[in-house]
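We were asked to recover a plausible sequence for a given structure. The inputs and outputs are reproduced exactly as logged, with field labels preserved.

PROBLEM: sequence recovery
POSITIONS: 422
GIVEN STRUCTURE:
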């Protein structure tokens, strides 16, 4: 039994490190809702790197050949494009190129620990302490991984800072180190605003999220130079004929979206999601508070929000062809929705300290054997999938699988928020 492993045993590191990694990967949360299963044998090249299904928003790569300070290379293959060769024309010289793009994601070591304290050690056995530490560190690790994914996909940390947040504000001196890879503002062709706003600085109190915004954005994304690839969830029988994207709105955006939608429209909104689910679809994305509009499954993001107060600095892409990061001042309280397609984010794990595990468990006695401290370490890195694509003349920076939508969303307990609920 795992609970009978002696304190300090090398087996404890193996058993509890592996168990913690497994628990984090199946724990309900933002990251795991969006990560697909491991690839099948046919996807041989991806399988060599431990790459999960490319049909989901988050592609997880487990490359044990990499350690701290390294980069994990990820390959994304594009669809074949070209005219068919007809009749008896020779195919030599007319073969289509197997086109793919590669992206490197830096990884580093993350660590967190639990200190049970001297009095707890006197009252609890080592085995109970391990259980408490495992539960606490699993929760902490899951929140860390969820928030790393959210911040990278949103291209901003925002200024919400409730007790759920593990990632500090971007003004914190450790923020860039914790994020490992640069947090990149959305590219211009993947950034939208509610109603008629065009910049963070001209978003105003009339720019509240509505279903009409999703109609407009879905049309733009489908007709874009690089269309955002749809998500293909296992068991979704409609996936090929009725493409699906997923949007995560904040609780405030969900509230104001509902108040701006008539009763009949809201029923249709909820019914659309129910019908997609009713034909055998059992994926957790389709359960809970969820609606569907214009091919986009829309659901609230629980307590987390990428949020800006009036007066906050908001980074945006001001470039015409290449990505150019500029800053603007938010004119009103602003929340950010993220709309996800396939391969939006790359989540990479590497080798930890020469072992074959992605998480490492460590425990030691301190304070003259009066207390036990437990820590966990993870070797990993996260990055938004971004490539430069050609429009025939210029190269255009493109966030491959994620778009962002900003809207006015005041605190509903304030006078401004209450006025929107009338």
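RECOVERED SEQUENCE:
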């Amino acid at each position: 039994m795992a609970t009978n492993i002696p304190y300090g045993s090398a087996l404890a590191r193996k058993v509890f490190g592996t168990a913690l990694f497994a628990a984090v990967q199946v724990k309900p949360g933002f990251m795991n809702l969006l990560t697909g299963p491991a690839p099948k044998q046919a996807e041989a090249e991806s399988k060599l790197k431990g790459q999960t299904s490319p049909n989901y928003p988050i592609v997880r790569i487990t490359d044990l050949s990499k350690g701290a300070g390294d980069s994990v290379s990820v390959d994304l293959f594009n669809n074949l494009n070209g005219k068919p060769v007809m009749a008896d024309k020779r195919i030599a010289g007319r073969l289509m190129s197997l086109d793919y793009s590669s992206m490197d994601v830096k990884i580093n070591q993350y660590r967190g620990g639990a200190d049970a304290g001297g009095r707890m050690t006197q009252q609890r056995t080592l085995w109970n302490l391990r259980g408490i530490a495992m539960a606490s560190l699993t929760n902490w690790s899951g929140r860390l991984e969820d928030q790393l994914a959210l911040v990278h996909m949103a291209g901003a940390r925002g200024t919400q800072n409730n007790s759920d947040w593990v990632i500090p504000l971007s003004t914190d001196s450790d923020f860039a180190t914790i994020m490992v890879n640069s947090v990149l503002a959305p590219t211009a062709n993947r950034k939208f605003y509610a109603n008629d706003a065009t910049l963070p600085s001209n978003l105003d109190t009339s720019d509240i999220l509505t279903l009409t915004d999703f109609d407009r954005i879905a049309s733009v994304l489908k007709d874009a130079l690089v269309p955002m690839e749809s998500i293909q969830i296992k068991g979704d029988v409609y996936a090929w004929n009725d493409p699906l994207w997923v949007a995560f709105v904040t609780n405030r955006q969900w509230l104001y979206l509902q108040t701006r939608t008539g009763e009949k429209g809201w029923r249709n909104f909820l019914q659309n999601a129910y019908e997609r689910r009713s034909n055998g679809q059992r994926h957790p994305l389709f359960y809970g508070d969820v609606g569907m509009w214009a091919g986009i499954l829309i659901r609230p993001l629980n307590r987390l929000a990428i949020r800006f107060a009036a007066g906050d600095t908001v980074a945006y892409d001001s470039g015409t062809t290449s990505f150019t990061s500029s800053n603007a001042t938010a004119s009103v309280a602003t929340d950010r929705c993220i709309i996800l397609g396939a391969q939006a984010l790359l989540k990479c794990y590497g080798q930890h300290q020469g072992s074959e595990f992605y998480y490492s468990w460590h425990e030691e006695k301190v304070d003259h054997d009066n207390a036990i401290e437990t820590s966990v370490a993870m070797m990993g890195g996260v990055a938004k999938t971004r490539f430069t694509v050609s429009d025939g003349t210029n190269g255009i920076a493109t966030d491959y699988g994620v778009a962002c939508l900003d809207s006015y969303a005041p605190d509903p307990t304030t006078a401004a928020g209450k006025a929107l609920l009338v």
